[in-house]
Amino acid sequence: MLPRFTLPLAAEQFLQQYWQKQPLVMTQAATGLSCLSREQLFALAEREDVESRLIKGRDNGPWTLQQGPLKGLPDTTALDWTLLVQSVDYYHSSVALLLDDFNFLPSWRHEDIMVSYAAEGGSVGPHFDRYDVFLIQAQGEREWQLGPKCNENTPRQSTDALDLIADMPIESTHLMKPGDVLYIPPGVAHWGVAASADCITWSVGFRAPRLTDLLARLTDETLADNASTLFQDSHRKLVSAPGALHESDVELLQEQALSLLSKDAAYRAFAELLTEPRQYPHHTHTDIDAIKRHYPDAYMVRAGGVRMLCTHEGLWINGDLYPLSTSLIPFATYLAQQRLYTTAQLDKYLCKETAPLLKTWQEEGYLILL
């Protein structure tokens, strides 16, 4: 089995009524979540190139946090502990295929899939995130308590290691079983506690770039294109106070500085930033047999940690631009909009120009032949 998610309502309705507005419980909306075992998750937590955390605690604490790599986890029969492994989709291409089912959102909004394992009573405490997340129950049961919208002024617990809410008001409670999905918008308080042993939850998180990061990249790109451009004021009028910075000069300086910004620079700056992966795995596992069983016509998949975006200039892969002619943009769009590619679909784009590109990207490890 391979992981699948089905949005149980029209995508337009979800975006209008729920996206970044209110939580949504979706019962039995996911399948195929057994493709990642507990043992595989524990093995990832031991790796140096994987971000992992071990959290212990319950109720009002005390809470402890241990950063990975994690060798020698607590016994699975012990209570009140949780293992978090970040970006599992980067290391297991089969897990990454789940992202194709979130195509009602632009792919650059996908961040990663974190997977947690919790013993009974395990939790990460009451908190809120600044990004959207779909919480998918893969194994066991977890009880989620939801609270109000929070912000930086929300009272916190006095814990150094974790950013936890103090005295979270409970507005609703939901017991999630395997296959159930809970969408939580940014800022909504939530607290999940494992209601059974061997509780595994997938968290599909969404990328929300900082506006300051976007501005910094746009500025860098603009400076590269206009390094020698100087200010001009040929229509200068006499000023009465030469030692003052006048509002008219501020407006003119700002106008000329902002005039350097261009749509092409924005495309390049933003595409570079949005295709940069969280990390670069030393090794990515691809379960070729499972993929071929599920998709007999599958020819190729994208490696788990590879990010792609298509613009009018070509295909961006992991922060690098591969310039393409206008005639090849549909081919690049096809590669960027999904992670699994069938023989029938690829045949529509194969030609003397695309064949060497595919070979190059396979050799780079971006694409994996099945």
List keywords for this structure.
Jelly Rolls; 3-stranded antiparallel sheet; 3 domains; 370 residues; 8-stranded antiparallel sheet; alpha+beta
Structure in words:
By secondary structure, the chain is an alpha+beta fold. It folds into 3 domains: 4-206, Jelly Rolls (Sandwich), CATH 2.60.120.650; 211-227 and 244-264, no CATH class; 288-369, no CATH class. Helix content is 25%, strand content 25%. It contains 11 helices and 19 strands. It has helices spanning 11-17, 38-45, 88-91, 93-96, 211-225, 247-258, 263-274, 288-294, 329-336, 343-347, 354-363; strands at 4-5, 24-26, 30-31, 52-56, 64-67, 81-85, 110-118, 133-139, 142-149, 172-176, 181-184, 188-194, 199-206, 298-302, 308-311, 314-317, 320-323, 340-342, 367-369. Strands 2-11-8-13-7-6-4-5 form an 8-stranded antiparallel sheet. Strand 16 and strand 17 form a beta hairpin. The protein is globular and about 80 Å long. The relative contact order is 0.14. The mean pLDDT is 95.
